[in-house]
Design a protein that fits this description.
The structure is a single chain. The longest helix is centred in the last third of the chain and has 18 residues. This protein is of the alpha/beta class and about 475 residues long. It starts with 5 loop residues before the first helix and ends with a helix. It folds into three domains: about 120 residues, Alpha-helical ferredoxin (Fumarate Reductase Iron-sulfur Protein, Chain B, domain 2), CATH 1.10.1060.10; about 170 residues, FAD/NAD(P)-binding domain (3-Layer(bba) Sandwich), CATH 3.50.50; about 160 residues, FAD/NAD(P)-binding domain (3-Layer(bba) Sandwich).
Length: about 475
């Protein structure tokens, strides 16, 4: 244990954000950094519990007490080594993970939890600063070729682990660059894309082959929004060119809303909106200005993280007004009795984007879109109330006479994703789907096709980046065992 009295002497200190008036005018990362000494002191708050529930809650199995003690002692080298043993990409999770570990920190029972996520980010960035993160190709190669379809967090994690084990790994990506949702879905103000480029460059030097601009199958996703000319590879070519193919294509079928006025212009899906802005910043989108919120009244339907990213992006684009609408009731400030520690609590979260401006509405049901000349002009909604039965089931009912309208020139649908995109490659391969519409993997990562496996959101449904990384790691372990 670094400092047995650290948690008694010190209060939680977060890095904080750059001033609103500064960050709202750019797309640079909003979160600041503490000094090395401040970060070491924050690590000293870790109690190194006998049962570390932080480790239990972490999908990638991070061993927080060990590397935080090393951080407190100033041993950055060993701290990074312990961190990297569990997490291949702490520079990503250190920026975008909601920190499931912190919700389960024992210190959080009656005090504020340790700043685990920010401590993690400090360790990996110090490791890069010290030149510790260097390419480490395997000493020997295995005569087995694995093709990973999709260069998002699951695909990258599987590629990282399989390559280190000596497999010949090729990552096939439809887009211009690798990264998937990390690159094209998450705004730059949360994750600067130079950090993705930095990691991809190391993986390439280690022997991972990246083939970008290659679409598999004839599906509508991959090129439509980006205008990438790229080439098309058939399902047969994929299977013939490897010993095993792993689909890590995510769950990109967006949830839509079937109400009057949906056909109006100015109503877009969140991922299309966010992707367009990310492409503009990367210099990839020649149609700059498309899907912009400049001078518009913006309504974001959906109160999750994706909706929040849309709020932050709209504010930076110069929206006249931003309103975020959520059908669920406003979450409580603190844990409810039915979500006791160490479970992940549903409590209200105020992000940096919320602090930059906009209105949040809860318990609101959208009933119709109103427009003129085929252009949306308003959202018609009503207030609802929620009740819970004795069995614990929630029901919603409309409050009579509560209808109202919200002026909107741009409506962004941020209601999540329903399942993997089923047309294109999945259909071409004849892969069986499960009851949720995702790829069926009975008890493992095997699909109904002998040489095809699946990992990440494509088989589990849309989830967190850290869940995708964990599933990519797990798939790699199974593949290693499969060929042993």
């Amino acid at each position: 244990m670094g400092d047995p009295r650290g948690f008694l002497k010190l209060k939680r200190m977060v890095s904080g954000y750059r001033p609103v008036e500064e960050r709202i005018n750019d797309y640079s990362e909003v979160e600041m950094r503490l000094t090395d000494d401040q970060r070491r002191l924050q690590a000293s708050r870790c109690m190194e519990c006998g049962v570390p529930f932080c480790h239990w809650a972490c999908p990638v199995g991070n061993i927080m007490p060990e590397w935080q003690e090393l951080l407190y002692r100033g041993d950055w080298v060993r701290a990074w080594q312990v961190l990297e043993d569990a997490n291949p990409f702490p520079e990503f999770t250190g920026r975008v993970c909601p920190a499931l570990c912190e919700a389960s920190c024992v210190l959080g029972c009656n005090d504020e939890p340790v700043t685990i996520r920010q401590n993690e980010l400090a360790v990996i960035e110090k490791a890069f600063e010290l030149g510790l993160v260097q390419p480490r190709p395997p000493a020997a190669r295995i005569n087995k070729r694995i093709s990973l379809v999709g260069a998002g967090p699951a695909g990258l994690a599987a590629a990282y682990c399989l390559n280190r084990a000596g497999f010949q790994v090729t990552v096939i990506e439809a887009d211009r660059k690798a990264g998937g949702y990390l690159r094209y879905g998450i705004p730059d103000f949360k994750l600067d894309k130079s950090f993705i480029d930095r990691r991809i460059a190391i993986m390439e030097e280690e022997g991972v082959e990246f083939k970008t601009g290659v679409r598999l199958g004839q599906g509508r996703f991959g090129f439509a929004a980006s205008g990438i000319p790229g080439r098309v590879m058939s399902a047969g070519e994929l299977i013939e060119g490897c010993d095993l193919a792993v689909l890590t294509i995510g769950a990109r079928e967006p949830r839509d809303i079937d109400i009057p006025g949906r056909e109006l212009s100015g109503i877009v899906q969140a991922l299309d909106y966010l992707t367009t802005q990310n492409r503009v910043l990367a210099g990839e989108n020649p149609q700059e200005g498309i899907l912009t919120a400049f001078g518009k009244r913006v309504a974001v339907i959906g109160g999750g993280d994706t909706g929040v990213d849309c709020v932050g992006t709209a504010n930076r684009q110069g929206a006249l007004r931003v309103t975020q609408i959520e059908v669920m009731p406003r979450p409580p400030e603190h844990r409810s009795p039915d979500q006791p520690w160490p479970l992940w609590p549903r409590v209200i979260k105020t992000s940096s984007s919320h602090l930059e401006g906009g209105e949040r509405l809860w318990s609101i049901q959208v009933k119709a879109f109103i427009g003129r000349a085929d252009q949306v002009e308003a959202v018609r909604a009503c207030r609802v109330e929620w009740s819970r039965s004795a069995a614990g089931a929630w029901t919603m009912k409309e409050i009579p006479g509560s209808d109202f309208e919200i002026g909107a020139d741009l409506v962004i649908l941020a209601m999540g994703f329903v399942h993997v995109v089923q047309d294109g490659l999945v259909k071409d391969l004849g892969i069986e789907l499960d009851g949720t519409g995702n790829i069926r993997t009975e008890g493992s990562f095997h699909t109904s096709q002998e040489k095809v496996w699946a990992a990440g959101d494509s088989r589990k449904g849309a989830g967190l980046v850290v869940h995708a990384i964990a599933d990519g790691k797990a798939a790699a372990r199974r593949i290693i065992a499969h060929f042993s």
